[in-house]
Amino acid sequence: MRTKWVDIFIAALRQEGVPCQVLKRVNGWPETALIAGRSCFTKSITFNQARGQYFQGVDPSKLKESGDLVVLCGGADGHLRDIFLIPWVDFFRAISLGQPVNTYRLPKVYYQYKFKVQFVEGEWIMIVQGSHRTAVNATPWHCSPGHAVEMLK
Q1: Which among 51, 56, 130 has a CA at the least distance from the CA of 86?
Q2: CA distances in angstroms from 33 to 15, 38, 71, 107, listed in the order given
Q3: Distance (Å, rounded) from C-alpha 134 to C-alpha 153?
Q4: Where are the domains of the chain?
Q5: DSSP letters along 52-69, please?
Q6: 119 has which bridge partners?
Q7: Contacts of 16 (CB under 8 A, 6+ apart)
Q8: Which residues, 6+ apart, have CB-to-CB distance to 132 below 8 Å?
Q9: Which distant-in-sequence residues (6+ apart) come within 8 Å of 89 by Cβ?
Q10: Alpha-carbon 55 to chain mean position
Q11: 119 contacts: CB under 8 Å, gap ≥ 6
Q12: Nearest to 42 by CA among 66, 19, 25
């Protein structure tokens, strides 16, 4: 079973007195949370050492919603290590530049926008599958878990 990095991050926030409430879970995974009064879309992302990247998908229906932040919580080897606090509008603008792909084997169909966040030449770069645009620099949104807690206080 993959690690629920968002749950670990929310526990760290609560421990520091930051009000947090998971509003919606999908298949047991936290998807939407209220963090310090901000509406947040959350994703747990696991670092793939061999590829040097995080990789995840987003349901196309999320593009119709609105909120304040997208909180990507990532880790590896049992340790939460990277948090990306991305303005909602910026994240979904980047996602919408891609093309949703079927992530199931036929005859089942489930479309997602797939994206990766990769550390390249000293910067975090977000690349959306099927996008014809240049990659998005995610470095300004990157925080250590401790710094992210302080920013959200």
Answers
A1: 56
A2: 16, 8, 9, 33
A3: 33
A4: 5-152
A5: TEEEEEE-GGGGG---SE
A6: 124
A7: 149, 153
A8: 97
A9: none
A10: 9
A11: 52, 53, 125
A12: 25
DSSP for 69-84, written as a single string = EEEEEEEETTEEEEEE
Report strand pairing: 111-120 vs 53-58.
Answer: antiparallel
Query: Which tokens hold the place of 74?
Result: 């990532």
- pLDDT tens for 6-35 read 999 999 999 999 999 999 999 899 999 999
Phi-psi region of 37 (alpha: psi -120 to 50; beta: other; left: phi over 0): left
Instruction: Judge whether residue 105 has pLDDT over 90.
Output: no
- Which residues have CB under 8 Å from 138's CB, separation 6+? 84, 86, 117, 123, 124, 125, 126
Range 128-147 average pLDDT: 90
Phi, psi of 103 (to 5 degrees): -100, 0
Per DSSP, the three-state class of 5 is: helix
What is the distance, to the nearest Å, from the Cα of residue 85 to the centroid of all Cα atoms in its chain?
8
Rounded Cα gap, residues 31 and 41, in angstroms:
6
CATH topology of domain 5-152: Trna Endonuclease; Chain: A, domain 1 (3.40.1350)
